[in-house]
Amino acid sequence: MLNVGLTGGIGSGKSTVAQIFEAFGIPCYYADDRAKELMRSDENLKSDLIEEFGADVYQDGSLNRSLLAKIIFEDDSARERINGLVHPAVGRDYEEWQANQNSAYVLKEAAILFETGGYKASDYNILVTAPEELRLRRVMERDGAKKEEVLARMRAQWSDEKKSKLADFIILNDEDHSLITQVKEIHEALLIRANSSN
C-alpha cells in the first residue's frame, strides 16, 4: 500500500480534491481535522499544550481555538512548538488508521505537509494549486474573514512555487481545468505504481 500526501495552500481546494479521490474508492485521512479532534480528546496532548502555553488554551475543557490561532499566526517559534506537540500525535493516529485500510494506496490530506517535513514519509505527494486571488476570495467567503487575516494565514504557509519543487503531481484548481479529469489521471498513475511495487 502506497502512502500519498495531499496538500495545498489555504483556499486551494485540497479538501474538494480529496473527496474526488474518495469517490474513486481511495481512503483519505484528514490530518487537520484529526489534529483538532486529538487536541480535544487526547489527554496527553492536552496536558502538554497546557504545560507549554498555560491553562487558558482550554476553557471549560474545550480548546480555545481563537487563542490558539492567535498564537500560531503571530509567533513563529510558538507555532513550531505547537506543531512539535501535535504532529507526533497525528502521526501515531495516522499509522493506526492506515493499518486498518485495504486499498492500493491511501491519501493523507494535510495543509502544511511540506512545511513540517511530513512529505518525506509519503511515497508520492500531490499539490493542489490555485491563483492567489481566487484562494483569497474562497477563504473570505467560506470563513467570513477579512482580507488581511487571510493574507496573514497565506504568508504563514510556503508559496506554491516552493512546494511545487517537492510535489510529484500538481493539480490546478482554477475553475477552468476539470478537477475530475486531473484526479482520474493521477489516480490511474498511482494504481499502476502501487501494482508495480507489490
Describe the structure in brief.
The chain has helices at 14-23, 31-41, 43-53, 65-74, 76-99, 132-143, 147-155, 160-164, 179-197, and strands spanning 2-8, 28-30, 58-59, 62-63, 105-109, 124-129, 169-172.
Radius of gyration: 17 Å
Question: pLDDT below 50 for ≥5 consecutive residues: which ranges?
Answer: none
Note the main sheet. 5 strands, parallel
Q: Quick one: overall form?
A: globular
Number of strands: 7
Please state the average pLDDT score. Answer: 92
Entry keywords:
198 residues, alpha/beta, five-stranded parallel β-sheet, two-stranded antiparallel ribbon, 9 helices, 56% helix, 15% strand, globular
Structure in words:
The chain has about 200 residues and is an alpha/beta fold. It contains nine helices and seven strands; from the N terminus they run E-H-E-H-H-E-E-H-H-E-E-H-H-H-E-H. It has helices spanning about 15-25, 30-40, 45-55, 65-75, 75-100, 130-145, 145-155, 160-165, 180-195; strands at about 1-10, 30, 60, 60-65, 105-110, 125-130, 170. The strands form two sheets. A five-stranded parallel beta sheet has the order 2-5-1-6-7, with helices on both faces. The protein has a two-stranded antiparallel ribbon with strand order 3-4. Strand 3 and strand 4 (about 60-65) form a beta hairpin. Helix 2 (about 30-40) packs across helix 3 (about 45-55). It is globular, with a radius of gyration of 17 Å. The chain starts with a strand and ends with a helix. The mean pLDDT is about 90.
